[in-house]
Each structure stands twice: as structure tokens, then as C-alpha cells.
Amino acid sequence: MGYINMEFKPKTIGVLTSGGDAPGMNAALRAVTRAAISNDIKVKAIYRGYKGLIDGEVKPFTTQDVSGIIQRGGTIIKSARCPEFTTKEGRQQAYETIQCEEIDALIVIGGDGSFTGGRLFAQEYNIPVVGIPGTIDNDLWGTDATIGYDTALNTIMHCVDTLRDTATSHERVFLVEVMGRDAGFLTLNAAIAAGAEAAIIPERATIIEQIEEAIGQGKRKSKNSSIVLVQEHAIEGGAQAVAKMMEETHPEFSTRVTILGHLQRGGSPSASDRILASRMGIAAVQALIEDQRNIMVGLQDDEIVYVPLSKAIKQKKDINADKWAAMQILSI
Ligand code: ADP
Questions:
Q1: Which pTM was predicted?
Q2: Which of 21, 137, 150, 273 is catalytic?
Q3: From the CA atom positions of the chain, what is the Rg in Å?
Q4: How much distance in Å is there from the Cα of 102 to the middle of ligand 1?
Q5: Which end of the chain has less Cβ packing within 10 Å, N or C?
Q6: How far apart, in Å, are the Cα atoms of 235 and each of 184, 239, 245, 250?
Q7: Tens of pLDDT, residues 143-200
Q8: 285 & 230 share domain
Q9: Residue 137 bears catalytic tag
Q10: Residues 258 and 278 in one domain
């Protein structure tokens, strides 16, 4: 990855996992630790995200500390949401830990919010920060995939497969609520993979139009049951709100709501997520050795790329038009 300026090579890297946990975060932590140590860089794990940075919950890591974790979901160094880090005082305290622990670069494994905080921190205290995208939502610009997305997608698909057994036994519309914050990637892709009748996502049309479309298609093919995936924030109140609207406008349909909730975050990471996390962990350390800062490691066309954090956070990635079209074609 180009010219290596040894002068700036960090002596100690701090690594943390922050925000919503995602399967594959452990695999990324393992890769960061082993890549750093193999480059004679010390690693300090910071527990509970930015909270641990503020509280000084830091532990030097050896290669053994990351043994046997590649297959484990969640994150062994814990994650947390930390409102204090959004304040100047909180970040000042965090910087005191950085100084005290002699950490000279930070790797943040997390999502949009974690990168927003990391970027601010990097600017205020002139500390190199590199982000590794760990979120099931796949909502970061500049990367085709985020760690945890593929696993969550498979989990949702299996849940919908299971639900279909019941759905086909009754004449009902099953509304399945799927996570994703502002993004419909999980919902749309899971809907295609599970052969759902429709996907209701925030990126497309109005909710009423999408419901009409879903029901209309169900009628056209005179199926006796249908499964509709609803992105949690496509409408305020999620799948429950969609059910209410359907009961009011189409009382002839009996609707049932299933909220998959935190089931979607768990489980052993898929092969694809483990490989992605391993590559990204190594690339994050490489980036710091090259004195890159304020960037996120991304994947584009199966190649590792570095994306400015500012772009990764601010720019919105749209859903794939072909996939949206596929959904419509296949649900007739
Ligand atoms: P994710 O990283 O999964 O998007 P969150 O949005 O919960 O998760 O963000 C994780 C943490 O990042 C927050 O608890 C907070 O400590 C930090 N953070 C988020 N937004 C900001 C911000 N605007 N300024 C500073 N820190 C932030």
C-alpha cells in the first residue's frame, strides 16, 4: 500500500469497539492485534468503547488475548453508548487516558456515530484515528460491505424461512420488522433472499404506496399468505404502525407482526464477515504505519480502500436500483 514513513510509525495502538455490536467485531480485533504485534507495535484494548477511554479501562493485549475469538459474535472488549464523549469535557478526559497510557493512534471499530466521535477527537487532539466499519446496517458510504452485515442478512433470511412455515398454513399477511437505522439494505436484501412478497424501506416511495403495492401483488397472484419485510424506521412505529394502517384500510387481511429485534445482531459471524474483518483489521494497522489519519477502511470491488471519515459519515449510500427492480419482478 505504498510508501512507508517509519518516522511516524506508532509505538502503541489503542483499539475499541463502539456503538451497536456486530458479528465479526472480534475477528477485526484479532486481526488488529496480530497485525500490530507482527509489526512490533504494542496494542492496548480499550473496554466499553469511548466509555472505557474516559474511565481508563485499558488492557495491554497479546496475541493470546485474541485466541479462539474469530468465531464468536458480539465483542469480547464490550461495546457501549457513551453520551459523555459527545461533550468537550468527556473528550478531554478521554485524551488524558490516551496520554497516560501512551497510546499514539486509535482504531475505532464501529458505525456512523462512533466515527463521528472519532473524527472530532482526532481533530481536537491531533491523534491519528482509523475506523473499521462494524455495523449490521451497511450504511456507511465508501464501502460495499460492513462487518456484520452478511451475518445479519443470513440470520434474517433464516428467521423468515422459519416464519414461512406458519405463514403458508394460515391466510395472513406477516409483517416482519427488520433493523437498519436509516438504511434499507438489510430489509431489501433479506426480502430478495427469503423470497418475501414485499419490502418496505425508507429509501423508496411513500409507505402507503408500498403497502398498496404489496397487497395488490398478493391479490394478483391470489396467494393465500404473504410476507412483507418492514424496515424499522421506514415509518414511525415500525411494523406495528404498518399493521394498524393495513387493518384500517384493508380489514379483509388478517395481519401478524414479528419483530426480529436483537436476534439480528447475534450469532457466529459468516465466513464472509470473518474474512472482511480480518482484511480490514490488517489494513487499519497498515494505514497507521503509512501515517494515514482520519480515514475509514473500506472495501470496493473486493479491494481494500481508504475513505476519508468525513465522506464515510456524511455521504448517503443509495440502495441498488437493480435489486429494487428484482424485488418487484420476483414478487408477482
Ligand atoms: P454507531 O457507531 O453504531 O453508529 P452510536 O451512534 O450509538 O453507534 O455511536 C456510538 C458512540 O459514538 C456514542 O455513544 C458516542 O459516544 C459517540 N458519538 C456518536 N455521535 C457523536 C458525536 N456527534 N460527537 C461525539 N461522539 C459521538
A1: 0.94
A2: 137
A3: 22
A4: 24
A5: C
A6: 12, 8, 11, 18
A7: 999 999 999 999 999 999 999 888 877 778 899 999 999 999 999 999 999 999 899 9
A8: no
A9: yes
A10: no
